[in-house]
Specification:
Number of strands: 0
Order of helices and strands: HHHHHHHH
Helix content: over 70%
Structural class: mainly alpha
Strand content: under 5%
Number of domains: 1
Largest sheet: none
Number of helices: 8
C-alpha cells in the first residue's frame, strides 16, 4: 500500500508538474515568447541557488566536498555540451558527404532540389542534453524525498508530493524553453521533460527500498543538479540575452529575469510553508 502511494505521488509530482508547466508556457504566456528566455534564465538560477544548494548544505555535509562536486558538475556538463555539438556536426557533415557522392552532375536542378532538405537540418542548441541530465538527477532526488515522507505518514507524503509539484512548475517552464530552442516541436520538448519527470517515480521506489543508503548521497545529487541548471543559464541562456537593445527592451529583459527568480522563490516558499504546517 505504501509503495503504491509512493508511485502515485511521485508520478503526480514528476509528470504533473511538467504538464502544468507546459500549459502555462505554451498556453497562457505563449504570447510572451520573446521574454521566455529571460524568465527561464531567472528560474534556473533561482532553482539552483535558492532551492537546491541550500538543501544540500543543510544536510550537514562538508561544504568543501559540495563545492568540489559543483565544480566537477560544471566541467562535466561543459564536456557533455561539447559531445552534443560534435555529434550533431559529425552527422551533418556525413549527410552532406553522402549526398554529394550520389549527386548527378548532369542534372544540376535535380541536384539542387535533392540537396534542399539539408538546409532544414535541425541545428543543435547547447543545453538540451545538459538540462535533461540535470533534470533527471533532480527528479530522482525529489522521488527520494517524497518516499521518505510517505514512509513517515501517508498525509505527510501527500503534502510532500504537492509541495514538489508546486515548486517544480516554474523550473520546468525554464526547461521547456531551453528544449524548445533546439526543437521545432512543442510535443517533443514536453515528452523529453516528461520522461525526466518520470524519474521521480524511480527515485521513489529506490527511496522505499534503500532510504538510509541514498540519503547519504542526496546532497551530492542536489549539487550535481544545481551545476546543470547554473551551466545552462550562464553558458546558453544569458549569452543570448546579451544583445544591444533599446532601453525599453533591456528593462523588459531585466523584469522577466527577476520575475523568473521571484516565481521560483515565491512558489518554493509557499510550498515549504504548506509542507511545514
Amino acid at each position: 500500500m505504501t509503495l503504491l502511494a509512493i508511485l502515485l505521488g511521485t508520478l503526480a509530482a514528476g509528470i504533473g508538474s511538467v504538464w502544468l508547466a507546459a500549459w502555462l508556457s505554451f498556453g497562457i504566456v505563449s504570447r510572451y515568447t520573446q521574454h521566455m528566455l529571460s524568465l527561464a534564465a531567472g528560474a534556473l538560477l533561482a532553482t539552483a541557488f535558492l532551492h537546491l544548494l541550500p538543501e544540500a548544505f543543510e544536510a550537514g555535509v562538508e561544504p568543501h566536498n559540495l563545492f568540489v562536486t559543483l565544480l566537477f558538475g560544471l566541467l562535466f556538463f561543459f564536456l557533455l555540451d561539447k559531445a552534443e555539438l560534435w555529434h550533431h556536426g559529425h552527422e551533418h557533415h556525413h549527410g552532406e558527404h553522402d549526398h554529394s557522392d550520389g549527386r548527378n552532375d548532369d542534372h544540376p536542378q535535380h541536384s539542387e532540389h535533392a540537396h534542399h532538405p539539408h538546409a532544414h537540418h535541425v541545428k543543435a542548441v547547447p543545453g538540451s542534453w545538459t538540462i535533461l541530465a540535470g533534470d533527471s538527477v533532480h527528479c530522482f532526488g525529489d522521488g527520494i524525498l517524497i518516499a521518505s515522507a510517505f514512509l513517515v505518514d501517508l498525509r505527510l507524503g501527500i503534502v510532500a508530493a504537492l509541495a514538489v509539484l508546486a515548486h517544480e512548475v516554474p523550473h520546468h517552464m525554464g526547461d521547456l524553453v531551453v528544449l524548445r530552442e533546439g526543437s521545432k516541436s512543442r510535443q517533443t520538448a514536453v515528452l523529453k521533460v516528461s520522461m525526466a519527470g518520470a524519474i521521480t517515480a524511480l527515485g521513489g521506489v529506490a527511496g522505499f527500498a534503500l532510504l538510509e543508503q541514498l540519503h547519504g548521497i542526496l546532497p551530492y545529487m542536489l549539487a550535481i543538479a544545481s551545476s546543470s541548471f547554473i551551466y545552462v543559464a550562464l553558458a546558453d541562456l544569458i549569452p543570448q540575452l546579451q544583445k544591444r537593445l533599446s532601453s525599453r527592451e533591456t528593462a523588459a529583459q531585466i523584469v522577466w529575469l527577476l520575475s523568473g527568480i521571484a516565481l521560483v522563490s515565491g512558489v518554493s516558499s509557499l510550498a515549504h510553508s504548506f509542507a511545514f504546517h
